[in-house]
Prior knowledge:
The complex is a heterodimer. Chain A contains 20 helices and two strands. Chain A is mainly alpha-helical. In chain A, strands 1-2 form a two-stranded antiparallel ribbon. In chain A, β1 and β2 form a beta hairpin. The longest helix of chain A is centred in the middle third of the chain and has 32 residues. Chain B is an all-alpha fold. In chain B, 71% of the residues lie in helices and 2% in strands. In chain B, strands 4-3-5 form a three-stranded antiparallel beta sheet. Chain B has a two-stranded antiparallel sheet with strand order 1-2. Chain B is globular. The N terminus of chain B is likely disordered. Chains A and B meet through α5, α6 and α7 of A and α17, α18 and α20 of B.
Amino acid sequence: MIPYLPVLTILPLVGAGVVLALPSSRRQLAKVVALGFSLIELVLAIVMCAKFAAGGARFQFLESYSWIPQFGVRFGFGTDGIALVLIAMVAVLTPVVVLASWYDAEPVKRPVKTFFALLLSLETCTMGVFSATDLFLFYVFFEAMLVPMYFLIGSYGGPRRQYAAVKFFLYSLAGGLLMLAAVIALYVIAKNQGVNSFAFGDLVGLKISAGTEKWLFLGFFVAFAIKAPLVPFHTWLPDAGAEAPIGTAVLLVGVLDKVGTFGFLRWCLPLFPHASTYFAPLVLVLAVVGVLYGALLAMGQHDLKRFVAYTSVAHFGFIALGIFAFTSQGGSGAVLYMFNHGLSTGALFLIVGFLISRRGSRLTTDFGGMARATPLLSGAFLIAGLSALALPGTNSFVSEFLVLVGTFSVNKPIAIIATTGMILAALYVLIIYQRTMHGPTNPTLPPMKDMSAREAWVIAPVLALVVALGVYPKPLLDVITPAVNATMHDVGKTDPMPSVPAAGSRTQGGNK
Amino acid sequence: MSPVPALALSSLGAGDFQAPHVAYVNLSPILILFGAACVGVLVEAFVPRAHRHLVQTAVALAGLLASLVAVIMVAGAEETTAAGAVAIDGPALFIEGLLSVLGIVSVLMLADRSVDTGGGFVAQAAVTAGSPADRRLRTAAYSQTESFPLTTFALSGMMLFSAANNLLLMFVALEVLSLPLYLLCGLARRRRLLSQEAAVKYFLLGAFASAFFLYGVALLYGYAGKVQLREIFRAAQTSSHDDLLLFLGLALLIIGLLFKAGIAPFHSWTPDVYQGAPTPVSALMAGCTKVAAFGAILRVLYVAFANTRWDWRPLVWGVAIVSMIVGAILAVTQTDVKRLLAYSSIANAGFIMVGVVALTKTGISSTLFYLVAYGFTTIGAFAVVTLVRAPDGEATHLSQWAGLGQRSPVVAGVFTFFMLALAGIPLTSGFTSKFAVFSAAVDGGATPLVVIGVIASAVLAFPYLRVVVLMYLSEPAETGPSVVLPGGFTSAAVTLGVLATLILGVAPQPMLDLATNAARFVG
């Protein structure tokens, strides 16, 4: 049997090496090779997903090789349903992004091959981060991932790229280093209990004193909350999202940020169940603030890329809400949301990128009445927008609904406030759509072509998935739900039973 | 003083210190290097100038290589020799081996003449700086080849420094390593006034530090009646003298050591001296001197003061905290690459101190590992600095580095790699070594230090990143620097630095094993 996860992790790096080894003049070849590697990766990932036994063992495709015995570090790979979905998402988005970025590296006078090599090495890091079952290995990928992303934004981005890249790097690194302190403390605690290991299975269920557990939780939480990003740790995202080249922005918001929410589920909750429960109300509040704040700011944006970035802040609020509701519906909804958000935000970013490349401007005021000139683009924009506002029939509806139902069963006020976020979402999407696509044609618009064949190939698979998963999300949910249940079991949570409150005492769901 | 159970750091008892013989074989790494230095002096006297550079390079490299081989041959030896004055044990041999390898890298940089005509050293040091004769000599094809024996003397002093088991010998070794360095600092070919200023500064402050050290030795002798480290350990349990004498002595002693290691608040010489000294010498100081100084600090604290640790530990905590914070914050404001590396070295000294205060076996091994990792990275970084040049010498001002990534992607890539390593990004030695010292410190109960350490690392990432931004993300300046194609020597030095930084980051286990096996002091 092929060791799928290590191969999936290493293959893009090999691709990056091959692309870098090509002569600088062979730009076209570099792109084709990069696309080829990302497609092989996609095929491999599909084969692996097909072989994944939904409802089987929690972790499958386990591989473990010795790395640094002194610290008990191993190359430990394995995937549960949650990671599997995200691995699939990375595998789908990378070829899309490679194809979408076909001409992105040309205008900046930087080597084209470096751009594609960086994209592939980023895929290595994200594959690794989702498939690592060893905390040390996870951390290595978690930090290493900053380097290619930093250069992608900093070398190939928009006018304020330096500022955005440095801000992104420093925010993430600061969070990562706090997490490092927590990782080290956890490792020492484990070692003192006779466990010289970073393996997920060995770290779950350690005896940690309540006070220490809270500090460790916070160390992990801040790193993931910056990555995700949760309000108030989100300020780097609009800058980075706006300055990154479009393909990179898709990966940044669609994939990299998921590492934060994935980290909550994989590491924060199972390792620190009591602290997670203790801090959950705080996180729920932050999440709801994020939903509303992101939506309001999105509504006020005139910059298309910043607009998409702020919609993501709102969406990540929903995801965090689902995770920290500690119900299987909320958790499953959150994981499904991670996948769906990758698709719908990816689609939005891609289409916005197509628009910007035609108009040469990111400002909504420079658009207007585009629907007449570019009907196909406009239609695609509408579908992506509807997916972002979670219209029934699109993928996001299922996940958002699940998150809200899951939250409602444990915390009604929070769920009710969060629901208003859906209304705000409808507002911000439709306002932007109206400003850019409808109304009188902006007289300054240059003549422009509708969607090219390459662009159609980029966007069609994503939109097809948006609709397909909106109608039939079951295959994904079948994989996700057992993994989420196992995670909730680690936290010691079971779904609240619908019950009639006993006379004289109010029971609250979610407690043990 | 209540009797505290002794740390199980020594395997040999008191009987050995009377042994009259000298274990020449086990001392051979140090003796060979002293021999090479003496041969270097003779070469200076008898070999014609035209051949001196070549012969001196060969002598220095051969001496260092032989010394390395000797270390490997005697590895595993554990004894005190020369009447207990020198300890031959894991840490001493580990540091001797490390110093010979780092010494080879430094000598390679020292020997390179491809970058500047005649190399980085002045042709005639005695000529007044700025005089017409000096200007004529600037392009002379020869240089003061005394730099080679001076370097070998300094390196052998460093080896002896970290192996010295008695305070008087430690003082002698301190002087043997310091005096050549003072001289070397003043020998830069370009910007001679800056170089001479650095030498004077280093000499004056260094002389003060030596005086502190010596005064500390005197007080400790007054307290214990002996200068052997193990005797001080014993006296701390049994002596009827006032403990004030002991702690005052320790404080003065440790000031001298902290000065050599460049730890805040005794760091103020570091930026000026690193900036003014010829870059190969800055590399030598940042890499090798630091290694030797920490070798001595470890030995003094772990052997002589192991049973009084509860009294001095808060002080060392404080020093580590100050050093990390001062180094990190001041690094942010630097505009000169060499000063930036200097402040980075101050912060890194703080990180190493975090490993030292763990006071466990892993504390020793992680400190040793950190020294290896940091030594190679910092020497490599300095080697890259020698390559980036303006018409008047090295282009050390950061603004001159703008757009380097487009002019010479390889040099910029290598320097970026070193910066990422110093910032502690995984898959570089900077990450594994930080992990090692921090986990040792948490294990030793110094968690707050680790938290401050990671915060300092986060702050430090900014200046490192700024260099990367300048190199890659800025447009090249009009009067940008030229990057000279490095000759074989500098290329070899840079390559060794890159390889060590990468291997210790990706596959650190063999070196960790080595450090763990070495982590045992004899007393």
